[in-house]
Amino acid sequence: MINRTISTLLAVILLLPGCAKHQETDTRVIRPPEWNFILIFLVDPSRRFAEKKFDAAAHRFLVGTAENYFRGRSEPDDRVLLASLTDEGGSPLLWQGTPRDLRRQFDTPEALRDFVTQHSRPTKHVYASLAKTLDYVSDLPPVHDGKAKAVVVVLSDMLDDSKTREQDLVKAAAALKRFTALRSEIGHWWVDWDAVPDFKKWYRKADLPEPHFIQQEPNPKPLTFE
User: How many domains does the chain have?
Assistant: First the structure.
């Protein structure tokens, strides 16, 4: 179980093998073989978040969280996935690799931020994008079949400015409820104070307890796992 004194985690995360380019038809992403542990980082590519909040401290948080999640493991089938909150159709995933691939390819905050922003189109529909990503992860055969544990970490201020926010909250709640029932967990870093009411409503609609903490620290500690 994720240490609740560190984050708002209730169930979630992601990453994949060093693809230098966005591969929309990568069958390894669509039908993974025998992934045992999956960590998914869902990153907000908006200028408001990516350019202003994704700094060296955020990079240390992401890399450190991956190291903590896979600590003591060297299984070749473990995976880190990168995905983005985007309006684009198709898979929300951008990249897959091992924890070592993550450190090697995205060795600086700029490398990771530029990769995400160059391969994504920002969206106002934060909760619709969350629903799509959580359903995608829930449908991965190892997760759906109970063979893999998935953790999704959302790096976003969670500000949804769309006109369909209320409808999207309902969809996102259904996706969250389904996801957390599959041995999976989700956590959040940097939820804006203005987004807290909708954020808490999302969890209530999913019949889940409210997160104990919402991290907004400028120097967040990486998530730890038991």
Answer: 1
